[in-house]
């Protein structure tokens, strides 16, 4: 399929305008066309008051106020008396103009909708593309619900601003300019009474601009937080129920929601004051024009037709001038939404070091004095280890000692800092390997496997284009074959969101099959057998042994039996390796490993006794 995304490749936007320009790529032509048709619509709207004015003068036989061109047309139609006897001609002209206006309105709406939908599509595609390229550290600090709120509410806010307010801006500017020109043409002095409205409304809007902006910023941020709470609670509904926390979570949501509603009401109050003020200014201006205009008309400075036309033009500008105020207030809100999207779009993407290259030929792995912290506390402390190519190694350690962190670093999910030591594969620092290449060659079964709401087979071949035979082979090695055969739908069994319809062990084995099918030269299993029974564990390990000596396998487990047959075992404590060697060597050493072995053996015997 053609790649529709116009990728920005992680480029930074120096200001709001440059980002909007980027988002509008592909929809500019629709924007221009909608502006053209909205301007034509204005012209038709403006012609009508003139025709009504001329009709009044014509009926009252005040022919001097009517231009010669129109009188010429009257003559061609059959003369003054004929036209006076057939006033329907004027109605017909008014209807024809209204019809042309309606056609313009329809075309404008059509191009406007096309522009809006293209714009939204481009914004969402770009945001999604950006979000999936942002590093894990960014995702650790930003909540999913908030990101989704930005991609929905804020995107809609910007769309509405551009499609409604921006096109209207052109319409209003043309409407106001032409109406003033027509009014000035009718009466040079009265027009001054009319235009005083503009600076007053614009000035008031500018005063309110900052107030509305900061009120909306609070509302929008709070909406993001509310979405994050809702998203987290709905995703974790099982935990909420299991711990009987429905009431607590409901109250927490209600409090947040109440706060959000309060902020919204506060903003509406500011907007309400602003609108009422605009109405009062508009009303005062209308009264002034009406009275001063009546004075000029009575004095004989202008005809009755001119007075009517002037009032009609004045009424035409009151709405757009008030709209101008609205546009300024919407601009404050759109600015907030643009900034919230710019926060995502300008976040630094995960990127390769300059000159990073292909994956090396050999797969021996070296951690040299690696020190790493997520925040301020070191998780890995000067950790060093060597894994030979094709070896199967085990990593053992208490919870929170940094085992998963070690693997996340090896897979390039987080980066080691400049002076935090080095990790090399085949002698090449992983910083000098393209991240895509690294991940293509390092297969990782995460501690908490994540499955997608698709079929089992689709989940297994999510990262590769494999045939069914390959899927079956991986499934067999992962000891999942029998389980699948018991499902009515077999490989087509639909896996609920995050794998909710599968048991913990089934999920783990699906994740193992998903990694096995990729046949990567390095395979990592992060506590991936914790949810399977000892027998299945042994069967999977035997399967792993058969995948070939050229594969480097790293097994992490709390269970000694899972790793005891490995070529080499590393015991990790306080973020560094405290013991290493084969099972026999470590047993002879009589240290930490031996202690854990004795503990687990005793527990195993106890369990067996219990069973007997
Ligand atoms: N994304 C993260 N942000 C901040 N701290 C983290 C993050 N991930 C892990 N940690 C912290 O780093 C430490 C090591 O975590 P890690 O997941 O590597 O432990 P582990 O050895 O795999 O534990 P377990 O056996 O329980 O899986 C923990 O104290 C944890 O709180
Ligand atoms: Mg872990």
Structural account:
Helices cover 64% and strands 9% of the residues. The protein has a 6-stranded mixed beta sheet, with helices on both faces. It is an alpha/beta fold. The protein contains 22 helices and 10 strands. The longest helix is centred in the middle third of the chain and has 54 residues, at 246-299. It folds into 2 domains: 16-345, ABC transporter transmembrane region fold (Up-down Bundle); 365-584, Rossmann fold, CATH 3.40.50. The structure holds adenosine-5'-triphosphate and magnesium ion.
Which key terms come to mind for this protein?
elongated; ABC transporter transmembrane region fold; alpha/beta; Rossmann fold; binds magnesium ion; binds adenosine-5'-triphosphate; six-stranded mixed sheet; 10 strands; about 600 residues
